[in-house]
């Protein structure tokens, strides 16, 4: 009997054993007392809350990010008591409490000017794909069961003990983003979870995406059409600016949701080329590469803010700075357009043309001083010009002459040229 099958089986067993050992090591690192990783001011605030609400636990993102050693933006807690009782207890101890979302069971304690959201444990009574009707519960597992992903369903009590009902610690260590329970049902409860899946995979995922999740997303993609465009753009923005954005876009393409999200048409190869050049984590810049056509239609459909729509349009406008331009020509462009917009145009040009000289061009742009036209209408009047509409025309002509010359002429030179033009006027 040949020894090859046994040898191959042994290799597979060793590989599996090594992977499991690595995961156990990551788990041990993650589950050291999480509270030791908190900033002292935040820990002190939590100790004040725990003195009043000893059953409160950290929940959601704070637990997840403390485990992997990432900084945490917000601290959310959950409690088994109803919100009115929570407010009463905190106020009795002289704390500032704001009823930020009583209908959802949420109040906010403000300690040292920092907010700490405290939400009563809930279970879903009814969902319609966008909103949920909830009722209070004192069952921690029921509350965890209504959360989206296993890595977001953990909680940590005042002793630093992590409560994990759905194996979120293992998934976090393994780089797996899984829905809590049945993926299809969770998406039907709230279709935004489709986009949240991709966002969280971009931050925490490794290897192949969860097969059950991808199947559920593919079959439920049309549910995204029932979401508000504001919610879609909020998530899409974070996906595009997040880590592994290219891998995530490929996954979204594989799942068939890009045409639903971006019916204007997504140009993934151009986006991939932009990412290959290590573009900045700028959601609008990356979107301009992904959707180079009909971007104005997209901005209206997704209800961009005026500033976002204007910036997206400016990125895709002309003129584009090119590597063979002289410093004088670049100063000409800088006199009318901000450096960040010119840099964005160069990124998009580089992505479309695979131009490796784009980096050098942006370095030149950064070194150049932004030129400021040194003349104003008051200068002409002080020099003896008669007021009137011709003053504005002279200024415009002088500014054009100043730009054509590379924006180097000083105030006196520009004034002399302006006076010469003024004298030549009829």
TrEMBL record:
Domain tRNA nucleotidyltransferase/poly(A) polymerase RNA and SrmB- binding: start-end pairs: 212-265
Keyword Magnesium assigned: yes
Record's keyword annotation contains Cytoplasm: no
GO biological process per UniProt: tRNA processing
Domain Poly A polymerase head: 56-178
Entry keywords, A to Z: Magnesium, Metal-binding, Nucleotide-binding, Nucleotidyltransferase, RNA-binding, Transferase, tRNA processing
UniProt cross-references to InterPro entries, sorted A to Z: Bact_CCA-adding_enz_type3_sf, NT_sf, PolA_pol_head_dom, PolyA_RNA-bd
Cofactor requirement: Mg(2+)
Coiled coil: none
GO molecular function, a single term: metal ion binding
The family this protein is said to belong to: Belongs to the tRNA nucleotidyltransferase/poly(A) polymerase family.
UniProt-listed PANTHER family: CCA TRNA NUCLEOTIDYLTRANSFERASE 1, MITOCHONDRIAL
Protein name, per record: Poly(A) polymerase
Organism of derivation: Acetobacter pasteurianus NBRC 3278
Lineage: Bacteria, Pseudomonadati, Pseudomonadota, Alphaproteobacteria, Acetobacterales
Gene: papS
């Amino acid at each position: 009997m040949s020894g090859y099958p046994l040898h191959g089986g042994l290799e597979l067993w060793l590989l599996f054993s090594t992977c499991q050992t690595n995961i156990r090591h990551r788990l041990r690192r993650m589950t050291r007392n999480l509270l030791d990783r908190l900033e002292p001011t935040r820990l002190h605030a939590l100790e004040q809350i725990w003195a009043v609400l000893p059953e409160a636990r950290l929940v959601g993102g704070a637990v997840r990010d403390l485990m992997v050693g990432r900084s945490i933006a917000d601290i959310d807690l959950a409690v088994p008591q109803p919100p009115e009782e929570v407010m009463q207890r905190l106020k009795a101890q002289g704390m500032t409490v704001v009823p930020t979302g009583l209908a959802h069971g949420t109040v906010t304690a403000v300690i040292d000017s920092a907010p700490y959201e405290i939400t009563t444990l809930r279970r879903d009574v009814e969902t319609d794909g966008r909103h949920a009707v909830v009722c209070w519960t004192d069952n921690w597992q029921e509350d965890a069961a209504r959360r989206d992903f296993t890595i977001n369903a953990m909680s940590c009590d005042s002793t630093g003990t992590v409560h994990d009902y759905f194996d979120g610690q293992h998934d976090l260590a393994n780089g797996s983003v899984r829905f809590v329970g049945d993926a299809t049902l969770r998406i039907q409860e709230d279709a935004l979870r489709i986009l949240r899946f991709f966002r969280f995979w971009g931050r925490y995922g490794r290897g192949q995406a969860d097969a059950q999740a991808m199947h559920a997303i593919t079959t439920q993609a049309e549910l995204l059409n029932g979401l508000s465009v504001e919610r879609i753009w909020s998530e899409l923005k974070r996906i595009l600016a997040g880590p592994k954005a290219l891998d995530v876009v490929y996954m979204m393409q594989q799942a068939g949701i890009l045409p639903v999200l971006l019916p204007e048409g997504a140009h993934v190869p151009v986006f991939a080329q932009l990412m290959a050049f290590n573009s900045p984590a700028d959601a609008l810049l990356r979107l301009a590469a992904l959707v180079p056509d009909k971007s104005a239609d997209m901005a209206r459909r997704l209800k961009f803010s005026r500033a976002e729509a204007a910036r997206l349009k400016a990125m895709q406008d002309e003129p584009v700075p090119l590597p063979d331009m002289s410093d004088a020509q670049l100063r000409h462009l800088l006199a009318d357009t901000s450096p960040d917009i010119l840099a964005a145009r160069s990124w998009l040009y580089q992505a479309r043309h695979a131009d490796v000289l784009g980096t050098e061009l942006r370095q030149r742009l950064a070194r150049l001083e932004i030129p400021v036209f040194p003349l104003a209408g008051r200068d002409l009047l002080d020099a003896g010009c008669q007021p009137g509409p011709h003053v504005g025309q002279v200024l415009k002509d002088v500014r054009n002459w100043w730009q054509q010359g590379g924006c180097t002429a000083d105030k006196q030179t520009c004034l002399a040229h302006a006076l010469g033009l003024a004298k030549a006027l009829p």
